[in-house]
Design a protein that fits this description.
The chain has 225 residues and is an alpha/beta fold. Helices cover 33% and strands 16% of the residues. It has one domain: Rossmann fold. It has nine helices and eight strands. Helix 1 packs across helix 9 and helix 2 packs across helix 3. The protein is globular. The two termini are 13 Å apart.
Length: 225
C-alpha cells in the first residue's frame, strides 16, 4: 500500500520516521509530508504565513502528481483538517483516510472550533509575540517549528463527495489531559462507516509507539475488498 502521512501542529514529516521504517520493512511505500511553513530552515516568508488552504493544496498536489496507486492518506491532529480537505477534492485517488488522534471536520469547521479550551489558550498564548505564528509548546522535539496561526483558525470548505468505497479509520491515543478527541472516538465507534482503534499512549502516537501504529496501518484492508 502507498501511505501519505501528514503531521500535526509544529511538527514535520520527521515525526513519522520510525513508523515509516516499519511500514517500508513490510514492503509499503511511505511519503511523510512537511507542511509549508514548517520547514527545518524556517518559512520562506514569515510575513505571509500559510493557511489551511495552502496545506490542502500542497498535499493534494503531491498526490495528483503521483501515479495511479490508491493512497492511504493519514493525518495526525491538525493533519486531520488537511486530509479531509484533500479527500474532498481527490476522493477517487484515495483508498483510505486515517485520522490519528486527529480532527474530523464537517463543512465550516476549523481546528479552532473543534479543539479544546486548553488548546485555544495555547494557540493564543503562543501567537502573542506577532499574532501570526504559534510558538512551539514545551516538550516537543527540537526539530519542531512555530506553526502558522492562520491554518488553525481558517474554516474548511467541504463540498465534494469522497469516493463511496473510501475506508475511514480513527486511531485514538486514549484519554489525555485536554484531549478534544475522546468524545469523537466514542461517537465514531457507533458509526458503521468507521473503524476505530485505540493505542492508549497519549496524543503523540507516532513518537510513543511507532510499532503499534505501523501495525494498525499495515493491517488496513483495501477499501474495495
Amino acid at each position: 500500500m502507498k501511505f501519505v502521512m501528514v503531521p500535526g501542529g509544529w511538527q514535520g514529516g520527521w515525526v513519522f520516521d520510525r513508523v515509516a521504517a516499519e511500514l517500508r520493512r513490510d514492503g509499503h511505500h511511505v511519503e511523510a509530508v512537511t507542511l509549508s511553513g514548517l520547514e527545518p530552515d524556517g518559512p520562506e516568508d514569515r510575513d505571509r504565513p500559510p493557511n489551511l488552504d495552502t496545506h490542502v493544496d500542497q498535499v493534494a498536489g503531491l498526490i495528483d502528481r503521483g501515479d495511479a496507486t490508491p493512497v492511504a492518506l493519514c493525518g495526525h491532529s491538525y493533519g486531520g483538517m488537511v486530509i479531509a480537505g484533500v479527500a474532498d477534492r481527490l476522493g477517487d485517488r484515495l483508498d483510505q483516510l486515517v485520522f490519528i488522534d486527529a480532527y474530523v471536520p464537517d463543512d465550516g469547521d476549523s481546528c479552532w472550533s473543534l479543539t479544546s479550551d486548553r488548546f485555544r489558550e495555547l494557540f493564543m498564548a503562543g501567537a502573542r509575540a506577532d499574532g501570526r505564528w504559534v510558538a512551539v509548546p514545551e516538550g516537543l522535539d527540537p526539530r519542531a517549528r512555530p506553526h502558522p496561526l492562520a491554518s488553525f483558525v481558517q474554516s474548511i470548505r467541504l463540498g465534494g463527495t469522497p469516493g463511496g468505497a473510501l475506508g475511514r479509520t480513527f486511531i485514538s491515543g486514549g484519554a489525555w489531559p485536554g484531549s478534544p478527541f475522546v468524545t469523537l472516538a466514542e461517537r465514531l465507534r457507533d458509526d458503521s462507516d468507521w473503524r476505530v482503534h485505540e493505542i492508549a499512549v497519549g496524543h503523540n502516537i507516532a513518537r510513543r509507539d511507532p510499532q503499534a501504529l505501523a501495525a494498525v496501518l499495515g493491517a488496513l484492508p483495501p477499501a474495495s475488498a
